Amino acid sequence: MQQRKAFIDEYLKKEHSVSELSRRFEVSRKTAYQWIDRFMAGCELVDRSRRPHSSPRAITAALEDFIVEARKQRPNWGPKKLRAALALANPGAVLPSVSTFALVFKRNGLVTPRRRRRRTPPSTLPFAEASEPNALWCIDFKGDFLVGRRRCYPLTVMDAYSRFLLGCVALPNTRVGGVRKAMRTLFDTFGLPAAIRSDNGSPFASKAPAGLSELSAWWLKLGIRHERIEPGKPQQNGRHERMHLTLKLETATPPSSSMRAQQRAFDRFRVEYNEQRPHEALGQRFPAEHYQRSYRPLPQPFWGRDFVYPEEFETARVRKSGALPWNHRSAFVSTTLKHELLGLRWQHDGAWRVYFGALPLGTLTGKARRLVFSSP
Q: Which CATH number, 3.30.420.10, 3.30.530.20, 3.90.1110.10, 3.40.462.10, labels domain 137-289?
């Protein structure tokens, strides 16, 4: 604006031509004459709006009201579906584009912003190779179904190397208590595996740092490595998914009349699957011929002991509220890790690196007289 005013002041002195002033102010002659015309017309030098005075594609107020009323009648229909429905109901009518429908929804307050969903952090560890029994167990829930008047959630655990079905337990829900009890029985019977592979659902994973859940934190304390497949890629646990298809055909089509009867059906299937059903991937042999119990027994106490951290680490225990106390202050980490002992290592950038055993959880920094925990 100062440049334009200076240009007009020099122009009004009539000492230089417009071409000379254009060179001095480093603007084109077209721009210079535009400034002059605007000033002479009304002493105006500000930029004008480039919005057109009229838009040939603008919809009428009546059509917009019609779209708004249709949206209110079908509040769960998106612009594409609603436009198609209106076109079918009003043949020959000229309707605006799908994007215009979306704009009408938005400017009339008919769109509810979606809340940003917190997702489970992706697993960064490579998958283990199932080169021997108990190198890797696979765990999952077979889709639930109705048994009598209750829902049945079959929890299945299989050894990846031998295809030996370790357990198939009929549970009334997917809560961590029932799963933990079932896993303790399997650990007592077969020992501990080196790794367990699961999907990213509850109770195997959560939105806590590093995707830890109460169940996977317990496994980690027992020295079991937890692997999580990528979201939307069940083929990474393909051998387990294939077993689920056979399980459904043999035991749940149709289901039993009670949970106890359903569990008996699962037990019969497990014996048949392990000892009587030849497996093509095993050269038409039985899984029981290739499986042997793990040499690692379930330790005592079965819930695991605190991790022992290197000498250069500091330690702090997470409170029941999920807060990590440090230097007379605290920062929220996760209720998933309540009562767990974490290790902290000083970084040269002024932050503390936080670990659960060997697993990095994030960093702890002091900001504005408070502590801030941030996941990687």
A: 3.30.420.10
